[in-house]
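re: ur question from earlier - yeah i can do the single chain one, its not a big deal. heres the input i used so u can compare w yours
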Amino acid sequence: MQLAIPGMIAVALSLAVLPAGAQSPGGAFSGTVTSTIQNYECGDNCYLILALPGGAELVGLCVAHACQPWNAEASLPPELLGAPVTVELGEGSQYDGAGDEMGSFLAFTTVTLD
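and the output i got, formated as tokens:
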């Protein structure tokens, strides 16, 4: 399953509501966000989708160690939907289906189930 265009729009919208300090002046993402898991989708890349206040979403590449088993199965265990998490923000590389790098994207470098 590929992430649909509306998901990408949600990313753009949600970046505007990241907590203070979540984006450095140089454009690189840093900081932590505590939220709940809303969804998880894999296509050419795997994304963890977090619920933010006001109905916004925060979508990031799931590159943390905790994501490895989910990415290998391209599936999140169903019992983790709605689970509280704290994530560390960073940047990751997106790849297309041929394995070619397409650029950088917001990534969750650490995912801790709360």
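The helical segments are 5-15, 68-73. not sure if urs matches, ping me
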